[in-house]
């Protein structure tokens, strides 16, 4: 019984209840813990990195304003996923492809130092190629792939967030890797 | 053969995602050792995963969320289970009132309609094309002396308490027919919208 309770305990539950009560410190902590996967969801939907900061800001603003609409605390992950996904879809509709390309170049250029420090084994050119290949995946396959790799979610977590069967997630991940292999085939032989 | 390949490919993906049981992983490794092509596929997928992990790491970190901007956008409305339940109860009278209103308001098809009796040649009661007798005055406009019939159908709702003590709603459709004018009367119609 104790084990079952321990298994069901969600460490985020008290934080979310505090946020509902208007606790700003709790909200700041919640943002710190989950901003990375929010960015992952946004990238999974948009397929490009230029609007990440802007959309993430929009998402957290909406979370603060609408936390009262979260019906049950245990469903916070899927609620936040849907909210983030909708914000990313809206952002994708607004941006034109031309503007996006220009911004991508600018955004990538500002992060060169950070990237080279974090991944010394990967050249900047390769990183761009891989990001472009991931961004070029159909959203159907890109979303679970990014959730898996950027956020480290397992199949069950991805399936719950996307409200899909685990089998479908598995199939989509296979197809995502297959498409990436085709797209990056020339680079892998080097 | 093709199905086997697909299953093996699926298991390779599961293994890379740490979703394969140890026994199944052992079985997969035995298959891969026997098939160089599948082994190459596993290596390729492994490399793609490594590249993807590194490339995506670069976009995990970004600009700090501006919390001041978040908080200034609007205060969070504290909601409790009790408040939500209270709000739900408040919706019930509104829903009942809306249902009653929907029953009382007649449907568009029953609102009103003008009917003319079929034209009968030589009839004194009805002329299909009445001749206007208006002489051009702005104030007085003669109304045709041909009688016109107008009917209006409405729906009434009556509440009746049955023998079993329950309240039953009975809908009754009533049609009222008006005929006018009988003679060549005149009508001030400055605001007449007919």
The tally of structural domains of chain A comes to 2
How do the helices and strands follow one another from N- to C-terminus of chain B? HHHHHEEEEE
CATH top level of the largest domain in chain A?
A: Mainly Alpha
Instruction: Indicate the radius of gyration of chain A in whole angstroms.
Output: 18 Å
Uncertain segments of chain B: 110-115, 126-132, 182-194
SS strand fraction of chain A = under 5%
Name the helix and strand elements of chain A from N-terminus to C-terminus, one letter apiece: HHHHHHHHHHHH
Number of helices of chain A: 12
Share of helical residues of chain B = 40-55%
CATH topology descriptor of the largest domain in chain A: Rna Polymerase Sigma Factor, Chain: A
Features:
heterodimer; A: 190 residues; mainly alpha; Rna Polymerase Sigma Factor, Chain: A; Arc Repressor Mutant, subunit A; 2 domains; 12 helices; 78% helix; B: 194 residues; alpha+beta; three-stranded antiparallel sheet; two-stranded antiparallel sheet; 5 helices; 5 strands; elongated; disordered C terminus
Secondary structure topology:
The complex is a heterodimer of chains A (190) and B (194).
Chain A: H1 2-8, H2 12-20, H3 24-46, H4 52-66, H5 76-94, H6 97-110, H7 112-118, H8 124-135, H9 139-151, H10 155-162, H11 166-183, H12 185-188
Chain B: H1 2-16, H2 22-34, H3 36-60, H4 67-73, H5 81-104, E1 113-115, E2 141-142, E3 148-161, E4 167-180, E5 186-187
Antiparallel strand pairs in B: 1-3, 2-5, 3-4
Can you describe this structure?
- The complex is a heterodimer of chains A (190) and B (194).
- In chain A, 78% of the residues lie in helices and 0% in strands.
- Chain A contains twelve helices and no strands.
- With 194 residues, chain B is of the alpha+beta class.
- Among the domains of chain B are: 2-57, no CATH class; 113-119 and 141-183, no CATH class.
- Chain B has five helices and five strands.
- Chain B has helices at 2-16, 22-34, 36-60, 67-73, 81-104; strands spanning 113-115, 141-142, 148-161, 167-180, 186-187.
- Chain B has a three-stranded antiparallel beta sheet, with no helix packed on it. In chain B, strands 2-5 form a two-stranded antiparallel ribbon.
- The model of chain B is unreliable at 110-115, 126-132 and 182-194 (pLDDT under 50).
- At the A-B interface, helix 3, helix 4, helix 7, helix 8 and helix 9 of A face helix 1, helix 3 and helix 4 of B.
């Amino acid at each position: 019984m104790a084990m079952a309770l321990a298994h069901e305990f969600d460490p985020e539950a008290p934080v979310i209840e505090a946020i509902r009560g208007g606790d700003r410190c709790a909200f700041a902590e919640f943002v710190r813990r989950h901003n990375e996967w929010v960015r992952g969801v946004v990238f999974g939907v948009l397929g490009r990195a230029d609007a990440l900061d802007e959309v993430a800001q929009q998402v957290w603003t909406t979370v603060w304003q609408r936390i009262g609409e979260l019906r049950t605390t245990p469903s916070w992950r899927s609620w936040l996923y849907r909210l983030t996904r909708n914000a990313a879809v809206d952002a994708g509709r607004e941006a034109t492809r031309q503007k996006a390309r220009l911004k991508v170049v600018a955004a990538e250029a500002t992060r060169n130092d950070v990237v080279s420090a974090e991944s010394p084994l990967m050249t900047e050119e390769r990183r761009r190629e891989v990001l472009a290949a991931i961004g070029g995946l159909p959203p159907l396959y890109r979303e679970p792939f990014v959730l898996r790799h950027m956020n480290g979610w397992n199949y069950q977590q991805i399936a719950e967030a996307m409200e899909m069967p685990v089998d479908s997630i598995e199939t989509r991940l296979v197809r995502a890797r297959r498409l990436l292999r085709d797209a990056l085939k020339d680079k892998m032989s080097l | 053969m093709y199905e086997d390949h697909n299953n093996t490919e699926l298991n390779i993906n599961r293994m890379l995602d740490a979703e394969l049981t140890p026994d199944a992983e052992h079985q997969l490794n035995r298959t891969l050792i026997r098939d160089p092509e599948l082994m190459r596929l596993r290596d390729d997928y492994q490399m793609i995963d490594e590249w993807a992990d590194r490339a995506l790491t670069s976009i995990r970190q970004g600009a700090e969320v501006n919390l001041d901007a978040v908080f200034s956008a609007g205060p969070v409305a504290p909601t409790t289970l009790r408040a939500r339940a209270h709000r739900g109860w408040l919706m019930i009278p509104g829903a009942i009132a809306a249902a009653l209103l929907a029953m009382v308001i007649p449907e568009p098809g029953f609102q009103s309609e003008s009917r003319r009796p079929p034209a009968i040649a030589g009839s004194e009661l009805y002329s299909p094309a009445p001749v206007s007798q208006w002489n051009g005055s702005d104030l007085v406009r003669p109304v045709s002396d041909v009688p016109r019939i107008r009917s209006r159908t409405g729906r009434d709702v009556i509440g009746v308490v049955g023998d079993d003590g329950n309240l039953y709603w009975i809908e009754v459709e009533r049609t009222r027919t008006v005929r006018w004018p009988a003679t060549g009367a005149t009508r001030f119609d400055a605001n007449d919208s007919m």
